[in-house]
Amino acid sequence: MNQRQPSARVQHKRGQARQEILQVARTLLREGGVEAVTLASVAGELSMTKQSLYHYFASKEALVKSLVAILLDDEITALTAAVDAMGTTENTLGTLIRAFYGHYIENLDVFRIIYCQSQLFAAQNEQIDEQTLRDEINPRTRHLFDILESHMTSSDMSSEKRLQIRQLAFVAWSSALGLLTMLGVADATNDPLIHSDESLLAALSNVFDNAAVCSG
Length: 216
Prior knowledge:
Radius of gyration: 20 Å
Order of helices and strands: HHHHHHHHHH
Largest sheet: none
Number of domains: 2
């Protein structure tokens, strides 16, 4: 016998409850780090029982995994706001790199949740799944690079040139991600990098802004 599917109203209420749970988890993560995000702490904030949360998330890892889309929205909002505030196409990639750094440097736990959890949770089979990547993550990252491409190209550019610019933007973003990864390692091991954050940011920004000029 086929199991009866929940009504649209029930599905809607369930979706709202999941979003409310995720928003509380997001607040706890930003205020107290990964350790502060437990099913018990989230349930307490919502005046729910821990058992009730199991209807929505089977484990802490499952809950944290579902936070990625919300946290990635925060990142893209911050990066696009920084680029939009420039009012010019010059130094777009340097601005991107500095905005990425500024968004995460005071909350490296959020950075780790987005960019390191696949490795962290692989043994528990809680890494980001293919459907989440396809439906939640990839559209958001494409949106970011659509915005960067529009800032750095003109209507008369060839498709090949536009692709080159888009690839350069991706490499700049990846380099900012790499810098934050190194800073995260340094933070976790209490072993600061030899170079200052500002000197590394300046070096990366200059490299990519100069490359953008040559590609334009």
